[in-house]
Amino acid sequence: VPRRESRPLGGQRRGASRKRGGRPMTGSPGKARGRCMCGRVRFVARFPSRFACHCHCESCRRAHSAGFVTWIGFPAAQVTIEAGNDDLAAYESSPGTKRSFCRACGTRLFFQSDRWAGETHVALAAFDDPVDRAPDRHAFFEEHVGWIPWPDAGA
């Protein structure tokens, strides 16, 4: 999920607080926990994160069967699997790119790529706790689907 090929969301300040599920998008000091749908794979990510963005690339859309995927990126050493490491499987979606998911329930959780070596991108929806930033960018917006209206699509 590249930052240099991304564009800002219309009218948002970097790091602006947003609500997710009724909670502010500012995490507890230091970390946020998350999990897959069935709960077998549990992880913790330590702040600060590097970015949060909506990715519109075809690979992310197909991997998640979604119109876009919202990622939050961390240095890899800041993301730890707390439970279910044996339940975590990976698929090489393109050379040097690994997408990890729970083999029991199929929840897509992590993205790692040689292109962004040393980073782990975590699907924002997998977090149970608030994180330290709200998404403030679109990545690969030129690949966005036409069936989602974007107010800032012309920007």
**What is the SS-derived class?**
mainly beta
Query: Secondary-structure element order, as H and E?
Result: EEEEEEHEEEEEEE
- Major sheet details: 8 strands, mixed
Question: Strand percentage, roughly?
Answer: 35-45%
Shape: globular
* Overall mean confidence score, pLDDT: 86
How many whole angstroms does the radius of gyration measure?
15 Å
Distance between the termini: 20 Å
Helix content: under 10%
Helices, by number, come to 1
Low-pLDDT ranges: 1-5, 10-24
Number of extended strands: 13
Molecular structure report:
- This protein is mainly beta and 155 residues long.
- It is built from one helix and 13 strands; from the N terminus they run ββββββαβββββββ.
- The chain has one helix at residues 58-64, and strands spanning 6-8, 19-20, 23-24, 31-35, 42-46, 51-55, 69-75, 79-83, 88-94, 97-102, 108-113, 119-123, 137-139.
- An eight-stranded mixed sheet has the order 1-13-6-7-12-11-10-9, covered by helices on one side.
- Strand 10 (97-102) and strand 11 (108-113) form a beta hairpin.
- The longest helix is centred in the middle third of the chain and has 7 residues, at 58-64.
- It is globular, with a radius of gyration of 15 Å.
- It starts with 5 loop residues before the first strand and ends in a 16-residue tail after the last strand.
- Mean pLDDT is 86; it is low at 1-5 and 10-24.
